Amino acid sequence: MTMQNSSRSKNSARSRIVYAGVLGLVLFGIGYTVYQSGGIGHVYQALGGKPETRALSSAYERAHMEADRKAYKADRAAKLPRMPVDADGYYAPPPESAIPDNPYGDAVRRGRAIFTETGTHVKDHVGNAMACVNCHLDAGRRENAAPMWAAYGAYPAYRSKTKSISTLEDRIMGCFTYSMNAQGSPSGKPPEAGSDVYRDLITYMAWLSDGAPAGQKLPGALYPKVPKPEQGYDLMRGLAVYQQNCALCHGGDGQGTTDPEGKVRFPPLWGPDSYNWGAGMARINTAAGFIKANMPYGKPFSLTDQEAWDVAAFINSHERPKDPRQTGTVAQAAKAFHGGESFYGKTLEGHLLGSGVGASRD
């Protein structure tokens, strides 16, 4: 009896081990399937966890697109070329080394020069120290900084700001009017419609967008929308964020910094040489989106949503050139043009914001 019980006990132990092993394999298979499907990540995010970001395992490079274009041109049965993307899934614009050596390439280079040094090349129409590249980083190439490869295929479009259909030329003219304060320039206005300035800028944008589909919003277009924090925004908190993250480049007084030759390195954020009250960046929510995705320079997405809103409010609580649409009082312009998140028309420390500042440039 003792030997039989011992044998039965050993067989029972072996069976339990086998069953446990099989059950373990089954559970592993189920768990691996759930992991691969992303189910765990969805649950983690639902509980408040932040999703891990990682580069895609592969990218469809411009060289692949060019090869597919060549093959499709030779044989319509070949696969269609697709939009070139980088490892993060954003559209990949052509490198500057690919600008052709022909009249088209000459226009591209002129457009890039205007884009990056607007006050040098179009000085008669720039009334501050700003350039296109200040709001559209990396010469208009950077995703989440309103890149030009996304803008080119988005126009003509209806704009609520103008309550009309705007062409791309109209849109650029608006940038001269508001972001570069053209009314404070020597000419007192943006370049005339049909100017070669627009022709070269648009040619540069067209070259940047080669391979990007038109008529659809691409990942990384515009600035990201940052939800307004439950705490709203606070100017004293914004001042602290500015001092810790912005003052080194833009100056403690917000007037920007220059290199030894006097060229603007980092633009002024308020005052006579900054964008005027009619610019999109003067809206707190717009500035918060730009700051969140791009600032401090070289450290994108390093600020919290709260910090981005606080510092955007601090910057845009300072006086700057007048809104050129203002023909009557500040109160009238505030009602007509400045709904939403803006300090325009509000009084801080006894000063009515929107009154404007005098131009400091000749």
From TrEMBL:
Single GO MF annotation: heme binding
SUPFAM superfamilies: Cytochrome c (SSF46626)
Source taxon at top rank: Bacteria
Pfam families in UniProt: Cytochrome_CBB3, SoxA-TsdA_cyt-c
InterPro entries in alphabetical order: Cyt_c-like_dom (IPR009056), Cyt_c-like_dom_sf (IPR036909), Cytochrome_c-type_DH (IPR051459)
Keywords on record: Heme, Iron, Membrane, Metal-binding, Transmembrane, Transmembrane helix
Domain Cytochrome c, chain residue ranges per copy: 106-212, 233-319
Annotated TM spans: 17-35
Name listed for the protein in its UniProt record: Cytochrome C
Species annotation: Achromobacter pulmonis
